[in-house]
Amino acid sequence: MKILVLNCGSSSIKYKLYNMDDHSVMAAGGAERIGLDEAFVKVTMPDGEKKKIMHDMPDHKEGVNFVFSLLTDPEIGAIKSLDEIDAVGHRIVQGGDLFEKSVIVDESVERGIESLCDLAPVHNAGHLKGIRAVDKLMPDVPQVCVFDNAFHSTMPDYAYLYAVPYELYEKYHVRRYGFHGTSHRYVSQRVCEFLGRDISTQRIITCHIGNGASVTAVKFGKCVDTSMGLTPLAGVMMGSRSGDIDASAVTYIMEKLGLQPQEMAEYLNKQSGVLGISGVSSDMREVEAAAADGNSRARLALDMYCYRIKKYIGAYAAAMGGVDIIVWTAGVGENQTDVREDSCKGLEFLGIKIDHEANNTQGKEAVISAPDSKVTVCVIPTDEELMIAKDTMALLQK
């Protein structure tokens, strides 16, 4: 079975084509600047080289159509005909409380995703464009939606509700949803396979730390709490997002800077976090380099970043009555050794002890805790696309 996984944003389409017989990636790439000038697709070649192809893509239909043409291209394509694609799986950021598991797309699913656009206007609108583009180009091919927040649907109400009038939840669905759920689900399952443990007996803290970042408490295979909230802004400090902030500080800043609500949202999402504190970059590699050169604000940004991750690890250990495994994943979590080590410093009282030499690893599965550490700390590279492909195949086989 061959499954195409699509992640459609407001002006982008990321894709991977899987052969599910062996889970191998047959093709991968991404279209950028859809609807804008100088649109292009970056294709990953079989030898790992990336090829950039300029192509005018006024809308998602043309973007999907061009991606399909590249998949069947005689020189760089992976298949001879689109008929070889058995299904398409989509990443959907916001499923609200309508979708608690992956579903096969029909008209009611599309209407449901559309009804949730207020909660994720940019993301969900882009996802819908991708679904509808595929429907027009390949109407007989089944499509599946895998929701980013579905894994977090097992949180108890006392964990996901905000302490605001209950009517806001009833009328407007104001609550904590969480994101990166597909990644948290994948790495919590994979780490138990890697260690040979039964997930139903393990208390796991998964740290998805990239430009966007979230920490999740997984108790006996189910999410019981997560750091992101109604939107991906909440939780730990991120590349350009503030993370947790006093709501009154938000209104205070709006008054001082004369910002409207949407402008304030942009300010907290795109000008804050590591970028806002360091003044250098939202890229942790550049901030670490600046700190090493003596930039005090870059050093401060790193200290704040690791301190906030540490606080969430401690909080979730308390929430679960202990922790057995900690997992680091995503771009920073998989590759920035100092962030992992600094975030775990001071947690020895919980039985967490990092092995400095073992931690000197990047981008591959590894145990990085010391032999005498009571908590096993691991690096597990995430694979959200494979998780989406697996969900898609499982639904079709039912």
From TrEMBL:
PANTHER family: ACETATE KINASE, ACETATE KINASE-RELATED. It is an enzyme of class 2 (transferase). The gene is ackA. Substrate binds at residue 91. Its EC number is 2.7.2.1. Its cofactor is Mg(2+); Mn(2+). Mg(2+) binds at residues 7, 384. It is found in: Cytoplasm. InterPro entries: Ac/propionate_kinase, Aliphatic_acid_kin_short-chain, Aliphatic_acid_kinase_CS, ATPase_NBD. It catalyses: acetate + ATP = acetyl phosphate + ADP. The active site is at residue 148. HAMAP family: Acetate_kinase (MF_00020). Keywords: ATP-binding, Cytoplasm, Kinase, Magnesium, Metal-binding, Nucleotide-binding, Transferase. It comes from Leyella lascolaii. Homodimer. Mg(2+). Can also accept Mn(2+). Belongs to the acetokinase family. One of its GO terms (molecular function) is magnesium ion binding. GO terms for biological process: acetate metabolic process; acetyl-CoA biosynthetic process. The keyword Protein biosynthesis does not apply. This is Acetate kinase. ATP binds at residues 14, 208-212, 283-285, 331-335.
